[in-house]
TrEMBL record:
Name of the protein this chain belongs to: GTPase Obg
InterPro entries: G_OBG (IPR031167), GTP-bd (IPR006073), GTP-bd_Obg/CgtA (IPR014100), GTP-bd_prot_GTP1/OBG_C_sf (IPR036346), GTP1_OBG_dom (IPR006169), GTP1_OBG_dom_sf (IPR036726), OBG_GTPase (IPR045086), OCT_dom (IPR015349)
The Obg domain, residue ranges: 1-158
Location of this chain's protein in the cell: Cytoplasm
Assembly: Monomer.
GO CC, one annotated term: cytoplasm
Positions with a binding annotation for Mg(2+): S172, T192
Single GO biological process annotation from the record: ribosome biogenesis
Organism, as annotated: Aminicella lysinilytica
Gene name as annotated: obg
Enzyme category, top tier: hydrolase
Annotated spans, Disordered: 21-40
Amino acid sequence: MFVDRAKIEIVSGKGGNGSVSFRREPFVPEGGPDGGDGGKGGDIVIIADKNLRTLMDFKYKKKYEAENGQDGMRKKKFGKNGQDLIIKVPQGTVVIDAATGLVMSDMLEDGQSFIAAKGGKGGKGNVNFKNSVRQAPNFAEAGNFVKERTIILELKMIADVGLVGFPNVGKSSLLAVATSARPKIDNYHFTTIDPNLGVVNIADTSFVMADIAGIIEGAHKGLGLGLKFLKHIERTRVLIHVVDVSGSEGRDPKDDFDKINAELAMYSEDVAEKPMLVAASKIDLTDIDSPDYLEFKEYVESKGYKVFPISAPINYGVKELLNAALEELQKALKNPPKEKKEEYFDFETDDKDPDFKNVYVEKQGNTYVVTGKQLQKIFDSTNFNDFGSLRYLYKYIENRGAIRKMHEMGMEEGDTIKIFNYEFEFYDEY
């Protein structure tokens, strides 16, 4: 099964907690702090692999987690860093942040990689909190949180030449004759439900050709499997529009030609402006001198396109068509289109997280609920048996304006303050 779109959840590793430890050695009755720092959590790294062809693996596994950092240890020993998790995707995969809809990376090159979710930083051990006033800190810093997000993987094939046209017009047959590809071929609609790739070898050069599955009217709106098919055309440099000029399906070739071009234009102006050759397919079922074919040829050429009569099963006209496609491809490579400006995901802003230090207060009945991202980290670092550690927590909440806000909301001495899963009774120390 060819899978070209998947949604997965990625979770980086949490930073290891700093250690609370004191020297315990013979003849050192009052050893100082020696708790080491926690290790960094593992990153989620996405890398493009040219050997992969589908997103099939992501159909069954939906969650990917990196290893957490190890907690710090005594004797100032650092915790081990968590192992990064490498996720391999096919070359040509676009990685999108599901929450914002912004592109995180377009994986065009084999081996291209980026960090999709950074691991949490390790917390500092208590040895870092010793000073002239605090000689024996009985607390350490908790490791930073995991980075958790949902991403969309969307595979867009990378091909030099793309075959487009209605179903059952001979695209698969042309691909099979022109390349070593072996697509399924038969006489019924939607024989090809997935794109097929093959390599065309001409003299001392070659190019990749893709059979883009059949397009129908309304494809640009997603009818049938329209959008699934059309997106694979975006990366092709040259199009070959295959039209059944024999009318064997009971359709008008000129009408077919116009309808497919209209679908391409309504999907994307960039796609509609790609260089295009027209393959007049199944010419063996009519005649190159027939009035119907000559009328079609004149009609298409009047719109500025070159027409090549072909019959793939008997290999008629295929060589001429492929030579012309190579010529157009070489022109396109010399004059690439201007890159489309894309709004990309801002990793710098994401890393800074302006909301990190904010503290929020919500009143639920007679209880004041206090939350915040950095507050969670400080709370996790608090030693509730150590007065200095508790006072640091209180001062942080006070300095962020939360105590004042609770007073404004009507808080009085004896009221309950809830911080995460713990409840405290408020008393004014002044």
